[in-house]
Automatic annotation (TrEMBL):
It is an enzyme of class 2 (transferase). This is histidine kinase. It is a multi-pass membrane protein. Residues 511-546 have a biased composition (Low complexity).
Amino acid sequence: MSPTSPARRLRLGLPRRVFSQVLLMQLAIAAGVAVLATGLFLAPLSDQLDDQAMRRALAIAQTTAAQPGIAEDLTSTAPRPDGAVQTAADRIRRASGAEYVVIMNKEGVRWSHTDRDQIGKVVSTDPSDALAGQDVMEIDNGTLGRSARGKVPLRDGEGHIVGAVSVGIEYDSVRARLIHSIPGLLAYAGGALAVGALAAYLISRRVQKQTRDLAFSDISALLAEREAMLHGIREGVVALDRGGRIRLLNDEAQRLLGLDGQAIGRPLDEALGEGRTTDVLAGRVTGTDLLTVRGQRVLIANRMPTDDGGAVATLRDRTELEQLGRELDSTRGLIDALRAQDHEHANRMHTLLGLLELEMYEEAAEFVGEVAGAHRVTAEQITEKIRDPLLAALLVGKATVAAERGVALDVPRDTALPDLLVDPGGLVTIVGNLVDNALDAAAGTRHARVEVSVRTEGRAVVLRVRDTGSGVPAEQRETIFTEGWSTKEPPAHGKRGIGLALVRRLAERQGGSARAGEAPEGGAEFTVVLPEALTEPELATTEEAR
């Protein structure tokens, strides 16, 4: 496109910046208001000046009619250019500045007039109203042109109407007064326009700073890009105003928080309910990368205040990452256990090799039996009491890890769990987290021991995990179930403080509970009750299960 093309010229003629456009719009509005106000003022002013002129003419006519001797001269003399009536009318006209003062008899014949040739002739306008005793105000055309007129009856000493007085003020003089007042009005209008222009300039400068001198098209494009970005990113965004009400909620935030678009405009506490997630988003819990659990999702939240007193919070879904992290922790534990077992296995093989070289065959066979039997007995004891395959496999693996860490994992005789779990995965998660915490607490203590007890009461499952660690202080037995609380060093893949929170959340999801207490022999005891954990009531007694 050439520089002189019409589209190019149009673009150059219309400013693109918000400052320039707002300033021009404000100036146009101020000018329009000034012109409109001037017009609205001038329209009634013309009527007011006409009314003033007519009232002035009427006042001069009334004053003339009240002059002593005029009525008598009218009735006693003939109409002459040098008569007494004409003389008195000329004197009043010159004194008042009127265009004419006409005195007539009852037949409308003039006794006075500015044009002496008109004396003795009938007036050109109808005087009947004045001769009937009425005062008349009007603007009309006569022999002297357009004028503002006032007519009154002329009465003699006894009050009888003997004629009329008509006084006219040249209408052009009224218009001249109107035109004369226009410069003053325009001066006021110009002052108002100047004040409006200054206000428009100040407003435009403020808008320029707030919009960073962008064009309206740029702002529109930014808003469109913002909407696309907010609803397209895989990170939840929640914007709050200074009153704690939700003013923006993108699609990912709705999914992570379980809300819908109707939550916009509602207070945060009302939309989400009480809980750590609400406290984090509301700023009652401070920090960066705060962990929170919403439903079955593990979320990472960050909150940034805004200049208007509100805040913007971002949410990241770490559920899968947290699961992978726990699996990584378990895998690392198993790797350590396997590494230790490999070392122990090498020692056993060396022992076996030595017995064989010494031809102590019976002792070698007995040694192999003891080693194999210990692992087999542990697995059989667990699988006899725990019929659910997932939970049994978990405990067998945990028993191996516990043995390598020097901790005895004990499953009491009264433990019994049928293969009727409604949510095996949930119970495995609960047991795995509690056992891992118990092993960490008991490792390195004297007579280190962890006890896992699972019993059924109708359709309910009662789980107890005890350890010989230092226990949990009474004032912290509720705090430890809060997301983000932990006494351990954070692992490589992220922060701790999720396990116990998930234990309680999974228990409450099934209408159950999770609490911490003190074990009879010291240490900690965690009790989880799941009232609807089985698909049908367990009919077998503990003795029958054994």
